[in-house]
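FAQ

Q: What does a record look like?
A: Structure on top, sequence underneath. For example:
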């Protein structure tokens, strides 16, 4: 594969693969944590390492799909975890690649669930049936249903304008001076990120706790 591209040149790599799910920390199995880390984090690292020699040779671009939930979580901590990790991987890589003329860009979409279908609607019944006996002793079906309804409502509010994210990816690949980060999100989503970045953690926790209690 590398020999083939060496003869025609290689400009850009887009790490776009990702999966998502819903669930509080104790509701998810270790196997699920491993699967998400393997796809969302290690998958991007594998492809990056495989194509790094060509990207350095041709002074290309590497684009990573992150998310605004790298900054906070509202019921999908497992997804947030992988996106926060990929952000830190990119931060290190971006600095290391400067001397080779390779640009590293991060796309940070807001809620585009209706465009990407990355997260199907949550079934409270399925979640309950998969819980361990220990978790069932702590929670009840009503709580699980409330959380499922909350998360499904978030999914239903997702933007259908997926082309906005694609436009950011194209700009990252073709612009003479691409941004390190492209935040493609609604104003209220950007405001939430701003609160997370600038205010003490206790403030952000209060905001998110209030949202979860509604």
């Amino acid at each position: 594969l590398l020999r083939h591209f060496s003869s025609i040149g290689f400009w850009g790599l887009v790490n776009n693969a990702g999966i998502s799910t819903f669930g509080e920390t104790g509701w998810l199995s270790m196997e699920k944590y491993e699967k998400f880390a393997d796809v969302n984090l290690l998958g991007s690292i594998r492809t990056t390492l495989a194509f790094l020699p060509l990207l350095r040779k041709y002074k290309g671009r590497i684009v990573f799909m992150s998310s605004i939930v790298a900054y906070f979580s509202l019921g999908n901590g497992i997804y947030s975890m992988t996106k926060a990790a990929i952000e830190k991987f990119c931060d290190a890589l971006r600095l290391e690649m400067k001397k080779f003329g390779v640009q590293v860009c991060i796309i940070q979409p807001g809620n585009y669930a209706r465009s990407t279908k990355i997260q199907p609607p949550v079934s409270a019944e399925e979640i309950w049936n998969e819980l361990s006996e220990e978790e069932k002793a702590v929670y009840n079906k009503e709580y699980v249903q409330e959380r499922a309804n909350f998360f499904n409502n978030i999914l239903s509010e997702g933007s259908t304008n997926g082309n906005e994210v694609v436009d950011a990816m194209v700009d990252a690949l073709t612009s003479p001076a691409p941004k390190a980060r492209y935040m493609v999100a609604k104003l209220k989503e950007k405001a939430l990120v701003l609160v997370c970045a600038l205010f003490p953690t206790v403030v952000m926790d209060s905001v998110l706790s209030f949202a979860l209690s509604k």
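Q: Is there anything notable about this one?
A: Residues 30-58 form the longest helix (29 residues).
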